[in-house]
Design a protein that fits this description.
The protein is of the alpha/beta class. The protein has 2 domains: 11-208, Vaccinia Virus protein VP39 (Rossmann fold, 3-Layer(aba) Sandwich); 219-281, Helicase, Ruva Protein, domain 3 (Orthogonal Bundle), CATH 1.10.8. The strands form 2 sheets. Strands 4-3-2-5-6-9-7 form a 7-stranded mixed beta sheet, sandwiched between helices. Helix 2 crosses helix 3 (64-71), helix 9 packs across helix 12 and helix 11 packs across helix 12 (271-284). The termini are far apart. It is built from 12 helices and 9 strands. Helix content is 38%, strand content 18%. The structure holds S-adenosylmethionine.
């Protein structure tokens, strides 16, 4: 007989579970539990989850999003840092055979060993205090991830999707757009969570590219250039890049060869321009 599961994504069910297990949402662990079934459905739809899809969920909490994923037929591995929660999840998700709860810290766990070599999707309502390190860890490890669909603070999503020229455009924009095609898919108000966060949230969908957006011989140099250019945003590119410790003349020549005016500010450079400058400099090393 098939089990019928009560839906976790409501204020009542969430309060009931928290009380029953004597839990308090931990601010330190970024715990804001989803209580809005429409948003859970929206996340699962944005991730285009079909039956049999392998999904890594980061921070399942009491299992709200996990339930939505499991109902859509996903095979879920969920990594949770809070030691109190696996026992709770064993009950709230009892009967969902295709869910595996892994206690641990997503920043320390060996994700490749956990997920293997077959493609998988990442779906999460991330703890906001470590959004950027988690995303960068997922992307830089070149894991077989096809997409990342996650709740993030609205302001962080705007930085991830920003185009050259604006004040939101920075190292995070370049890094995320180098590896993925990000788009904001859903606005989520504070009342969709318990407790309500002080910031606005959005769901962002990042389709991971099969090849980076631009081709560079020396990725480390590319990202060093990007960081230096944004490190001193108010300076001209020529001045900001001095921190790289390269010869002035060599930098000037590379900028000229890449057709980039040294008087420009770093924040106006597109990924293609950063790549072209990186290629000029790497060919001289
Ligand atoms: N997915 C649940 C939901 O949507 O209601 C909970 C989301 S809550 C914003 C973030 C979750 O991530 C919490 O359960 C928290 O304990 C967990 N968490 C925090 N830091 C973590 C880490 N480094 N590794 C794994 N989980 C973490």
């Amino acid at each position: 007989m098939e089990m019928i599961h009560p839906q976790i994504a409501s204020r009542e069910a969430t309060m009931h579970i928290l009380q029953a297990f004597h839990l308090h949402a931990s601010k330190r662990l970024g715990q804001n539990f989803l209580i809005d079934a429409t948003i859970v459905r929206g996340i699962v739809e944005a991730a285009e989850v079909v039956s049999g899809d392998r999904v890594l969920e980061i921070g399942p909490g009491i299992g709200t999003l996990t339930q939505g994923l499991a109902e859509a037929g996903a095979v879920v591995t969920a990594v949770e840092l809070d030691k109190k929660l696996p026992a709770v999840l064993a009950e709230t998700l009892a009967g969902y055979e295709q869910v595996r709860i892994v206690p641990g810290d997503i920043l320390k766990i060996d994700i490749r060993a956990l997920m293997g070599d077959e493609p998988f999707k990442v779906v999460a309502n991330l703890p906001y205090y470590i959004t950027t390190p988690i995303l960068m860890a997922l992307l830089e490890q070149r894991l077989p991830v096809s997409s990342i669909v996650t709740m993030v603070q609205k302001e962080v999503a705007e930085r991830m999707t920003a185009q050259p020229g604006g004040k939101e455009y920075g190292s995070l924009s370049v890094a995320v757009q180098y590896y993925t095609e990000p788009s904001i898919v859903l606005d989520v108000p504070p009342r969709s969570f318990l407790p309500a966060p002080e910031v606005d949230s959005v769901v962002i969908a990042c389709r991971v590219r099969t090849q980076p957006a631009v081709t560079v011989k020396d990725e480390r140099l590319f990202f060093r250039l990007v960081r230096a250019a944004f490190g001193q945003r108010r300076k001209t590119l020529a001045n900001a890049l001095k921190t790289l410790g390269m010869e002035r003349e060599r930098l000037a020549q590379a900028m000229e060869a890449a057709a980039i005016d040294p008087g420009r500010r770093g924040e106006t450079l597109s990924l293609a321009e950063f790549a072209s400058l990186s290629e000029q400099l790497s060919s001289e090393i």
